[in-house]
Amino acid sequence: MKMNNKVFKYLTGEPFLVQELNGKQVELHYMNDTPFLQQYVPRGRFYIWSSDGRNYKLLIEKGFYEKMDYFFKEEINEVWLNYLDEISEMNSKMSRIFLLGSMGLSLVIIVLATLFLPEDKLFLGIIAALVITFIGNAIHSRKANAQMREKNDKAQMQIKELLTEEGFRKLLKDQEEYMKEYFKFEEDEEVEVLDDEEVLEIEENAQAEDQILEEENIQEEVEVEVIEKPKAKKINYEAMTVAELKDMARSMELKGYSSLTKQDLIKLIKKNNK
Question: Are residues 204 and 264 located together in one domain of the fold?
Fold first, then answer.
């Protein structure tokens, strides 16, 4: 299944590393020289998976990879691929079942309405068919989420076993140190560090959301319009939280931002980001 296809198509240069996993090729590319850096990193996503439906390209912020390259070893990425493939296959299969089921039932309702309802009441059959379709989609989403959680838990356990407890504590420590370095946090500010389950769950859910959004043809939510000359003013500041805006102000080495409101933060960042 295609995933973040525009990111995949954009990455035409030479990868810094290529892995062969389960008969599929995984290219690793640095994010730093792409227009996707400011799209993802301010929101805490330092690596992004993309696929053309066959092979994969993994886009990673360079410093993050250099700090935690052990998290992108072949055995770890193989778990990610298996997880993504299982989610893709599951969602495609369930979508076909519920789509055909709801369409078939809706067609039966419309036919019955045509045969037994007067012409001025046919709209009732159409409404009933729409309701059936809506209910089918709701059931599909609920079942898909339940199965996704089950596969998510399984992938978490596999990754923890590969990293070991000591390795996972190192991952958390390295993540904290890199966050401080990248965003230039002040020493007296406490950095929120996620526990082991939260780290894996957030990353795996992010990948699964990319898959599902691609299946539903709403790629605009996960794909970035590639622009030839990305500029800071193209960032959607309104969509960012106050904490994200403060992180950005901190990384720009601005002063006097800690007590500002969201709108004042946006004005300050725009003023210094020209």
Answer: no
125 and 155 belong to one structural domain: yes
One-letter-per-residue 3-state SS of 189-243: CCCCCCCHHHHHHHHHHHHHHHHHHHHCCCHHHCCCCCCCCCCHHHCCHHHCCHH
State the residue range of the domain holding 259: 232-272
11 close to 68: Cβ distance less than 8 angstroms: no
Where residue 237 falls (left for φ over 0; alpha for ψ -120 to 50; beta otherwise) is alpha
Q: What DSSP element (H or E) covers 58? A: strand 56-60
* Helix (H/G/I), strand (E/B), else coil: 184: coil
- Distance, in Å, from the CA atom of 240 to the CA atom of 26, rounded to the nearest integer, reads 31
Contact 128, 113 (CB under 8 A): yes
Would you say residue 149 lies in a domain? yes
Token pair of 136 as six digits? 């089918």
Q: Is the whole model's pTM more than 0.70, yes or no? A: no
CA angle 82, 86, 88 (to 5 degrees): 120
Residue 105, phi then psi, degrees to nearest 5: -65, -40
Nearest to 83 by CA among 197, 173, 201: 201
Query: Are 201 and 65 in the same domain?
Result: yes
Residues 64-123: tens digit of each pLDDT:
999 999 999 999 999 988 888 887 777 777 666 666 777 777 778 778 878 888 878 777
CB 200 within 8 A of CB 149: no
